[in-house]
Design brief:
The protein has nine helices and five strands, in the order ααβαβαβαααααββ. The protein is an alpha/beta fold and 194 residues long.
């Protein structure tokens, strides 16, 4: 906790004063241009990867960068997607997976998650990704990570606010995979078929 407190002090002393004008504008308006759906993994920092300023991205982070397909039951991911698209009017959504993802590793290796029931239930949102990944051996994890991004894009497209904005031509969807050791970001192509 001491490191976090030191970081806050450094932010207040060094960073905030240098960006005071930006924060003054942000205090009056919230107009991000993109929704970034990434993994909760601490090694994946959307603003750092995209070199974005505060206020540029509306960020949703979930284990495995999973986006549940739309259902009428409310949840935090759905509410965040709807808010970003229908209220804030973002013009792009990025679903970003990453190398070495713990969630995808657990699925690729068939890990026993019986002691982590909530994690196991959450990872069911990647069942289609697992089913579509036919690669075996050392290439299975990278293939699953890419397929999972495509599957989550397909799930994202089931959300009514997303479907309306895409039909109106005001929203584009993008799938990326971030490679932690190289810093490379690659486009994974179109969404998987539902």
């Amino acid at each position: 906790m001491h490191d976090l407190s030191d970081g806050v002090a450094r932010f207040q002393r060094e960073v905030f004063p240098a960006k005071a004008e930006l924060f003054a504008r942000l205090a009056a308006a919230h107009r991000p241009t993109a929704l970034f759906v990434g993994c909760s993994d601490a090694r994946v920092v959307p603003e750092l990867i995209t070199q974005s300023e505060p206020g540029d991205l509306f960020v949703v982070r979930t284990a495995g960068n999973l986006v549940p397909a739309h259902t009428p039951d409310p949840d935090g991911v759905t509410a965040s997607i709807e808010y970003a698209v229908a209220v804030l009017g973002v013009t792009a959504v990025v679903v970003c997976g990453h190398s070495g993802c713990g969630a995808m590793t657990a699925l690729a290796e068939g890990a026993d998650l019986s002691a982590a029931g909530s994690v196991a239930r959450w990872l069911r949102h990647a069942d289609a990704s697992v089913a579509r990944t036919t690669q075996t051996g050392p290439g299975r994890l990278p293939a699953l990570i890419r397929e999972n991004v495509r599957t989550q894009l397909a799930n994202l497209a089931t959300h009514p606010a997303v479907a309306r904005a895409r039909a109106a031509g005001t929203l584009t969807l993008h799938g990326w995979v971030y490679d932690i050791p190289s810093g490379c970001v690659s486009d994974v192509g179109p969404a998987a078929a539902p």
